[in-house]
Fold each of these.
Amino acid sequence: MDGFAEPSPVIANGLPALEVWEAWQRKPQSIMPRFVQCAIRLSGCLFLAIRLSASLPNVLIIQTDEHHFQTLGCYGGQIVQTPHIDRLASEGALCTSFYATTPVCSPSRAALLTGLYPQHNRVVQNNVPLPSGTSTLGSILQQKGYRTGYIGKWHLDGDGKPQWAPARSFGFEDRRFMFNRGHWKKFVLQDGRPEVGALNRNGEPSYELDDADEKTFATDFLTERALEFIGQKEDRPFFLMLSFPDPHGPNSVRKPYDTLFDDVTIPIPDTLRKPDSQIPAWAPSDAKITVATLRRLMPKYFGMVKCIDDNVGRILHLLEQTGALDQTLIVFTSDHGDLCGEHGRLNKGNPYEGSARIPFLMRYPSEIPPNTRIGIALSCVDFLPTLNGVLNLQISEVFNGRDASQWFRGNPPPSWNDITFLRSSRGGNWLCAASERYKLVVSSGERPWLMDLQTDPAEALNHASDPHKAEVLQSMARALKVYAIEEKDPLLNVEGIGSSLTELLSSSQ
Ligand SMILES: [Ca+2]
């Protein structure tokens, strides 16, 4: 046919094909039989239908585990240089008040992937399996024509550990390198299948480093699999969720990251030791966490973050090389934070910033202007409706979260009620309302606690009795009660929570 090969009427990995197709259609066709011309016109219509879905960008979510946002340069971190993650922030949007809806693993992940509060998606604590049939971002994007994959830690299939390739897909077609649970440091391929590479004396998978190297260390291994997934030539756009198990403990990392931060001065939080009056019942200090603990743990934690950033760089490099970078919506986030000694604690589970606030970056230059900074309080349940808004996906599912896409587009709506809601994992017994500046925590066995992030960013004090903040306290209490009633949050019925809110609200009358 005049030297023209029929082009593929689709877009592979974000590479445009429309111009090629149109050029092919413009070529002289008069000598073609009529039925061939008809067929071409028909296939053109079909192509336009396909193109509507094919013109969607790739979607890549990179999620870390237990990651203190301030270890990243773009969030003010001074110790670890994170140029690749920082690039996502400078070329896209950075959220300064994005919270884990429930700051532990499974509930946070479930909220991010379903847009539903834990009491609605049932994943109210760790190791609760996401109910079969639940719509997730995976199933939604699969239905939109995406090639879907999940690589790394999942933690929504119960107790299984590591449990590679869980049987229930939730729309993720390629789950070969998905594992349910565990903080493994070394992976190997055995006949093309992944295995934990370190074993204990009984031959069982272990968290040991076991001389993991740039091929077998978990972060590198999972990145390599992600590069293979991204590099597959396919007609559909891809959706990949890459979920690193680091920088969650155990605090260990391969060479050379293991010693990179041995000589830095480890910052010691002012709140490592606090007077009893500043210690709420929902976050008791642990006397065993000392300066020496932090000096021992933090250099490796920083090393894990540096390794993650280098691997994010490898992914950005591949996307750039293949011309797909700007045709890929990239999110960088974590499931929750790690207090890293703040308030005399490690890990998470409470509403303090280091525990509940997470890094949240989104780069997609077609829709999101560079250096967009978003201060409003958001949480994991807002992600799916917001992505729906940014990509105009026309999703029919109903979400609990809100569509904040106009903020990401750099065009904030004229009115927006700046408030979001966090809730404890089962047994934690607290509810929290958060705005850009304030957090109100109501719990059983503790008086209401009000944080003012502007005047007291370390959250050292309870501002609830400050008469100048009485109005703020009232409005946040009102909003928290409305949330708990409308979203049927059973924590409202836990002793001390509902009564606390009632008491707060009656005190203004
Ligand atoms: Ca986690």
Amino acid sequence: MFKSLFTLLNTKIKNEILLLFFLNFIVAFFEVLSIGSIPIFLMYMMDPINLVEKIPLDFIKEFFKNFLSSSDIFKNLKTVLFLLFTIFLIKNLIILFNSIYQAFFNRRISTLLASSLFNKYLSEDYIFFINNKPSELIKNMESIGIVRSLITMMLVSAKEILTIVGLIVIIGVSDFKISLLMILLGIIFMIMHKYKIAGVLVYYGKKSYKYTESRLSLINDFFGSIIDIKINNKEKFFSNLFKRYFWSYESARIIDKLISSMVRPIVEMTSILIMILVIFVFLIEGKTFIEIIPLITLLSLSFIRILPSVITLLNTLNRIKFESNQLKYLLKNISLIEKEFENKKDKKVINFEEKIEINNLSFSYLEKKIKSIKNINVTINKNEVVGIIGKSGSGKTTLLNNISNLLKFDTGEIIFDGTKIFPNQNYILKNLSYIRQDIYLLDDTIRNNILFGEEENENSDNKIQSSLIKAGLEKFKDKLDLIIGHKGSKISGGENQMLGLARAIFRDPKIIFLDEPTSNLDYKTQRNYLQTIKNLGITTLIIAHRKEALNICDKILLMKEGSIVDQGSLDYFKKKYSNFETYIN
Ligand SMILES: Nc1ncnc2c1ncn2[C@@H]1O[C@H](COP(=O)(O)OP(=O)(O)OP(=O)(O)O)[C@@H](O)[C@H]1O
Ligand SMILES: [Mg+2]
């Protein structure tokens, strides 16, 4: 896991992490120094001569001997206290600086990570979104924080381990048996963790993410079906389902919480046992209280400092295990390279002008062996309005999605003004506007809904107003700042559709696709809507479920089971098919 994390990092971030490591190292050093200084201070207070005798290096010993004999005891004490204070001051200043630096580092890393996953999803093809549930993608986006935590945990762990090692060394200098005992206990803990606890955590971690996903999915469905829930009186059903998912999620989390909460008592009890043991052994060895006090002070201070470290470390270890599956997924799918979002480089840009020729086009959705589009051959000429009719499921929407490259066709070719497109090729039809029945409007102003990411300039408001007027929405022309609500819930269904038309017109398309655009419109508005389309005078493909739409068509294609089975003018169809109406509804 750490390896794949490191392959993600670029040099700049690696350097920063190195710097943070270095800072943490200094913090650890001062931690040990400051804790070690207190028992030494105590020894100094009780018996300065004896303390100096314990110094191993001769020249330092001489220096301190001189120091002790040079002036009176109060002056010395002042110097010693000043030293003590300075050590603590430096330590805390470094800790403060480290935290500030880390906070800024975190901000950058988090933004980088989250945008990286978001951009990855943005650059996926439409088919990816057909095959992946939004709730799962939301869950992944939401869990991205754990990668940052992994980096932070690494840094913190390094510091804590260094501190622990330092303290164990100091204790070892005073009495190596105690250090040995501590190391032994540590090893036992680690082995137990690896063979007993880790597996349980991974198992429940996986479960907890599964239920997070189900819960998000349910919430999505709940908002989407609120009207059906109310009408069908199904509140209780959804309420129970939600309770069940939440319960299961919390159950999976219980094990994680139980294990975390067990860490502290176990570590604490072990420490106190060590203390008691040490005191007993010393008393049996016949040492005096005065001799024991500095060591006991060192031990207590070390335990007070080590305890939280050990608890943090163990809990960190547990966290990593618990989240390991999600972490693996994220590490595989993110990058830490700072870059602007780029559209796929191999995307061909098509500036449509004249004619579309479709030859032998076929397509099937991934999971289905059956072809949803079969051997389509058709030519669409400049400024032609082409209607597509056919029963439900005959492939009308799929065909438009194939031509617009939302779905990449499997075999055949499409030729735009002589530019040939091959199966699975990426391209973008630059001057296409595609209006669907289920247009998704942003919970934003009319202006931003029409702009939809286009740059604003001094003319854009005028252009927005004229698009609104053309689309039959004069009433909104002076209300560009009106917020239309979630999915346009603060305006009518028909107005939603007309706003979709205004957005399409605003982009000055050369070609326009319409998938059942008029279903929410009254008769008169529908006529105006269709007339507006006709007046645009541009190449148009319109999927028609109402016969009025066919009145504006120059040519009609009849689809059946993925194929075009007939084509001709409206009169031709009316004459040939007595049951013509059944193909529309
Ligand atoms: N995501 C999908 N995965 C698998 N099969 C699909 C998918 N979407 C559509 N299909 C199938 O492809 C065929 C064509 O569907 P399409 O949506 O193009 O029909 P349509 O003519 O637009 O129908 P409607 O008039 O109801 O909108 C249908 O048989 C449908 O079941
Ligand atoms: Mg359709």
